[in-house]
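Reopening this one. Same input as before:
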Amino acid sequence: MKTTYIRHILAGLLIIAAAQMSAQTFHSGYFLESMVQRNELNPAFGAQSNYIVAPVLGGTQIGLHSNFGMGNFFFQRGDMLVNGLSSQVSANEFLGGLPTNNQMEMSIEIPLVSVGFHAWGGFNTIILKERSFAAANVPSTLFEFLKLGQNSQGVARYDIDNLSVYTDHYIELAFGHQRELPALEGFSYGAKVKLLVGALGGSIDMEHIGVDLSQNRWYITSEGSAQLSSGMHLVYNENGDITNIAFDSYRLGGLGLGFDLGAAYTPEALPNLTVSLALTDIGFISWIDMERAVAGGTFEYTGFDEVGAPGQPEASKQLEDLLNNMSQVINVTPTAAATVTNSLRTTLNIGAEYAILNRKISFGILSSTRFGHPYTYAEGLAVVNFRPLSWLHLAINGSASTFGGALGALINICPKGVNIFAGCDYISPTTKFGAQGIPVNGTNFNFRAGFAFTFGHRN
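Same output, byte for byte:
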């Protein structure tokens, strides 16, 4: 059995390189107590007011994130753009600009119901949201293989490790409670329990692809697996080859359970300092009757013939033909369907804030690390918060992360009765744009805005 998913991985990478938006957790509001939804970053944070968030408009977040750009894959030659596999682009020019691991992710969060209220000795939240996530890790060795393999003399060896694609889509219903600890003044803690209903989930993990090639034949050794929940299935041709991944209508695909835990402390001796710690999305989803396939063993392939040689089609056609032929490289065998349990992507947030001028200005630092498939993400954030008026709060931040450095800003308008916010995280000052207005280098951008109705304000 054979598969074409490498073709779809590469197509997705090029699309994401063109789009260049980012979708990480919105961290600009971590230190602004007027942000009614900051308890999603740390359940130990309550809110000054009861609130009801407007459905969908209350903070929908959509975006893309990658550590590469359009300029890594397309190059200007005269008045034309050619791809990196073209003979007009040298191997050093194409491969020299690629990260060791080309990483990208897409995420969507849509709030359906979100309310917060003071009761039972603390602050409580009920949140119903739709969450989607997709990510891929493609080692640069794959592009080295595509660029150099067809021109190699004698025998060449390529080791392509940790090629992976991951996605999940689920509904989350969360119940949270936050309160202060009477025995220790200034200490608050909180927790959330989350019920998860999975609609769509799957992953492709190629732990290793080894390619030994000569002028006449290739030997490919592969080790990996694929698994798809209901809502997706493998498509076979008349020869029994896997040719595509098709999508069906969403239905119950799995069930899961998650938790958020958090604490915050303002020492009595240092009333201007607040330190905080949170672990969010601790838990799992069990996917029911996932369709599975495994790759293993050695496969001999003899189908390539002078790809890239003089007289062959233009680079774009060469790329298409090469990706079509790649469908015969990896040998995949279906296995019995089974229930598969996957961990959630757990995030650790550690923060500290120091306020001056009666909290008119404060300075915060935040370390955020996300653990989970397909890679770990780490970020450090420094924030300056301004509260010039009781109903107007602002934040400006700078960050350094796995994907580089960036800036961000947030405005929160919070008179009694309404809470409106808008902000950007991960704005790169080094972004370069091509003639078509498309970023040509890796960049990050994340915009989120929303509003909530507030009542029962407390200091």
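So the earlier flakiness isn't reproducible anymore. For the record, DSSP finds four helices and 22 strands in the chain.
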